[in-house]
Amino acid sequence: MALVVYWYDFVCFGIVAASFIGSLWVLWRKEAASRCEDNSEYESLLATRPDADGFVRATPRAHVGSNQLWTSCWRGVHPGWLVATRFVSFATLAGFLSWDIVEWDASIFVYYTEWQVPVCALAIVGPSVIALYVILKVKREPLFLDDLWKPKWKKLNPFWLLCYRAFAFLCMARILYEIVALDGAFAFYFYTQWTFALVMVYFGVGTVISAYGCWRLVCLSAHNPENGSSDEFLKRDMEEGATANYVSYVRGKIKLQSHYAQEEFQQRAGFWGYLMQTIYQTCGGAVILTDVVFWGIIVPFLSNSHLGLNTLMGCMHTLNAVFLIVDTLLNSLPFPWFRLAYFVQWSCLYVVFQWVLHACGFTWWPYPFLELDTPWAPVWYLALAVVHIPCYGIYALIVKAKNSILSRLFPHAFVRSY
Question: Which residues of the chain have pLDDT under 70?
């Protein structure tokens, strides 16, 4: 009797293949072959061969000694017990596998599915692997702590940015609460709710960091009354062709003397700062993708009981972009292109989430273009993979337009990025 297997088995194969390729890449980058000083290689599986002069020199830190392969990490435990444990495990697994083969015949090793399924899996796994490679290899520009909570406007007190972020967070939390109260956990079956929740998380983290920045500013102003009001830190002289002077009131300032000027460099952001910027840039591409798909495809052509247009859905697919764009017009966060990779990973995570749910028995797809039982599925998945580039690019253009247009319209109020 042949075993009936569905499309999601090849999804699992795709995930395993991606993991296998990723592990090979890590091994190639980190492990390779252990080399001695004269470039002789250790290729023996059990014992290290001596160098050309007959001596075995120091091996790399991660090198595995031959005795580690058969001895236990527990003192007093005889290696024979490790041998017995391994043999019993092997015999038990071999017995269960033999039982399975007798019960179902050798067809348990053969899996069949429609051709478009592995193609769709490749369309998702491929960009995900490339995005992971970009994240690991790119050299990111430094992110300064003040950029997380400082407005781009010279006369604007950071307290107002704090208030705006708190207001946006509370509004989005209220809307998300209404949706979850209406649909329960099923609400997170959709990419829109994922993106909406991510934008809300950004405003939550941004509110906390803005509050920390305002608190630092108040404390430093109290300890340094000669610095004037709390707005003094915003008075930065930015001139075309000149070196930008970054002013930061932090303990332990680092001062570099040069022939031309003395610069006070800002304190670099830590983990939470980079996390905030990563979420911000992921949200930038995700809200464009969500709103374009909803207003351009779903509402005109694919509207149904789950995806119909109502007040709540309209607010979700409008306020997510409006709140984020207004924050972009106010904040000082950079928007480098390489973080498109995080946006790709975010969407791939959602697609894998859908595949896992369908592997567990779900039959309904939240979006028709995610279905895998149609010959057009590879085209849809390829289009979804490609559309991430223009969606992220649109938001990158918004950030670039902010720096170029607003600096010309308001040269004395807007701080231009260099």
Answer: 1-20, 22-66, 100, 104-120, 135, 138-140, 223-266, 302-308, 416-418
Whether 342 is in a domain gets the answer yes
| CA–CA distance, 413 with 154 (Å, rounded to integer) | 5
* Owning domain of residue 315: 128-225+271-409
In a domain, 205, yes or no: yes
Q: Which residue has the tokens 């499309």?
A: 7
How many other CB atoms are there within 10 angstroms of residue 252's CB atom? Answer: 5
Residue 45 burial (C-beta neighbours within 10 Å; 0-12, 13-18, 19+): exposed
Nearest-10 Cα torsion for 188, 194, 197, 198: 160
Number of domains in the chain: 1
Query: How many CA atoms does the CB half-sphere of 78 hold within 13 Å?
Result: 3
Report pLDDT digits (tens) over 228-285: 444 444 344 433 333 344 444 333 443 333 333 333 446 777 888 889 999 999 999 9
Between CA 269 and CA 265 the distance in angstroms is 12
Instruction: For residue 392, tell me if it sits in a domain.
Output: yes
**What is the maximal distance between C-alpha atoms in the chain?**
87
